[in-house]
Amino acid sequence: MSIMTLDPVERMLDAAENGITLIKNRDILHYTYMPDTILHRDSEQEQVTQSLIPILKHSRPSNLLVYGKPGTGKTLVVKKILSKIQSRVEKSKFPIKLIYANSKEETTLYGLLVSFGRQLGLNEKELPSTGLAISEVFKRLLKIIDSNQLNAVFVIDEIDYLAHLISKTGKDILYQLTRANERLTQGSLTLVGISNDLTFKERLDPRVLSSLGEEEIVFTNYSVEQIRKILEGRIEQALVKNAIEEAALNLCSAMAGREHGDARRAIDLLRVASEIAEREQKTSINEDHIRMAGQKIEENKEVTSLQSYPLHEKILIIAVMKTSELSTGGIYTAYKTLCKTVRQQELTQRRVTQMLSEIELSGLITGRIIHQGIHGRTKKYKLTISPNTIKETFKDDLTFEDIL
Ligand SMILES: Nc1ncnc2c1ncn2[C@@H]1O[C@H](COP(=O)(O)OP(=O)(O)OP(=O)(O)O)[C@@H](O)[C@H]1O
Ligand SMILES: [Mg+2]
Q: Which ligand is nearest to the CA of 196?
């Protein structure tokens, strides 16, 4: 072999084969990985288990609502308990079905119900993936529960998204779901809803809330120290010995613990930082790597959010970028000019004002009210993200060629 391989691909492959490795098991840093031990969550595990225990005694548990900020271990804890109960059930052949679906991963209410149906054993013929009325899908789910005398538990993760799907179709399905048990004669149905949106409850119909929230369990926020311990567990399994400096671990815990102790964020930071350090062929992860990881994650979020906007929102964001803190009227003028350049029919000022508020909610721009004495008040907007991120994200889109 030559002493120096100049081909960039060969060089990288060489480095990967012969260079420094920090990550020994990447899967453990993936968000879907389920750790064997769950730290700091004994009381929550006990409460959720307690609430589901009646099912082992062939009676119906209460509906349950599980709450807590993002990354506080809700999905992890509930899934672990489901799988533990399920494995006992399989041994004893109880007619029990514990099934799980995540509303955020389904695009329609129909899809979510079909996912439950499949887990109950209904095939495409018995429950087609499209085409039935929602009420019919629902009827078939209840029928199989009843005819098999099943005690079923439906776990609906990120149930706030379901509420969202429902508000689009205007159906009263959440109410029907929570009351489904009353329509069963042989079997039973319990709902477990999981949500990280603390305002979700306030938006629910009181009738739905009273039955869905028969029991409630709140997951508290992790402290910085607890996050650190969770990270240590992952580090031991995922990274080689001494792969992270003490200061870097502290910083990582502090950054993830800053707002509300988000274990997912902590693990993401660790994963990205270890990839950066490995790419740089450093022998350990330092504080700079953690900071860079934080920046990269933030940028990725911004890019995804920018890409998800329709055309006119994108033009409007470019208008805000170009005007640097102008009032709504000023931004509208700039937007109209941009529309001309890219040959798009402009939308009304009213619509554009509304769009600005929506974009503000996503955090990409920020507005502040300026009082102008007798002229009343106006709102001025500016970007919160770097103009470079916008240019980089939109640069391959030919539509924006002449305005970036
Ligand atoms: N106590 C813990 N011990 C070990 N790992 C944990 C613990 N709590 C959370 N994690 C890990 O942190 C990540 C986020 O946890 P989880 O998905 O359960 O959060 P969540 O509360 O469901 O968040 P969200 O509301 O955003 O869905 C997962 O990778 C999980 O394995
Ligand atoms: Mg979750």
A: 1
| Atom nearest to 73 CA in ligand 1 | 18
For 162-211, the pLDDT digits (tens) are 877 776 665 677 888 888 888 999 999 999 999 998 888 887 888 888 88
- Say yes or no: domain 222-305 is CATH 1.10.8.60: yes
Q: Summarize pLDDT for 320-334 with one digit per residue, the tens.
A: 999 877 888 999 999
Share of the chain above pLDDT 90, in %: 68
- Interval 52-93: pLDDT, tens: 999 988 889 999 999 999 999 999 999 999 999 988 887 777
Domain(s) of CATH 1.10.8.60: residues in the chain? 222-305
Ligand 1 site residues, Cβ closer than 6 angstroms: 31, 35, 38-41, 68, 70-76, 196, 230, 263-264, 267
* 115's tokens: 């996912």
Q: Looking at residues 237-251, what average pLDDT do you find?
A: 97
Is residue 248 a contact partner of residue 266, using CB atoms and an 8 Å limit?
Answer: no
Q: Which of 10, 15, 96, 21 is nearest to 53 (CA)?
A: 96
In 3D space, the residue among 159, 153, 216, 204 whose CA is nearest the CA of residue 181 turns out to be 153
Best residue among 34, 38, 74, 76 to mutate for probing ligand 1, ranked by most atoms within 8 Å of CB = 76
- Is the whole-model pTM more than 0.90? no
CATH of domain 42-219: 3.40.50.300
Q: How many CB atoms lie within 10 A of CB 316?
A: 26
Residues of the chain with CATH 3.40.50.300: 42-219
CATH for 309-400, options being 3.40.250.10, 3.40.50.300, 3.30.70.20, 1.10.10.10: 1.10.10.10
* CA 400 – CA 315 distance, rounded (Å): 8
String of DSSP letters for 87-104:
HHHHHHT-SEEEEEEEGG
Least confident of 69-73, 236-240, 322-326, 389-393: 322-326
Looking at ligand 1, which atom is closest to the CA of residue 40? 1
What is the Å distance from ligand 1's center to 31 Cα? 8
